[in-house]
Design goal:
globular, mainly alpha, 2 helices, 53% helix, EF-hand domain-containing protein
Length: 32
């Protein structure tokens, strides 16, 4: 895992799964 960031592909996969473990901090890095 990268420093405070998440791979967009991994993030998209998590969102598709509806994984509630997605960290808001990491999400803020993805959604500018």
């Amino acid at each position: 895992m990268q420093d405070g960031r998440i791979n967009y592909d991994e993030f998209a996969a998590m969102m598709r799964k509806g994984n509630p473990e997605t960290n808001p901090k990491k999400r803020r890095d993805v959604f500018y």
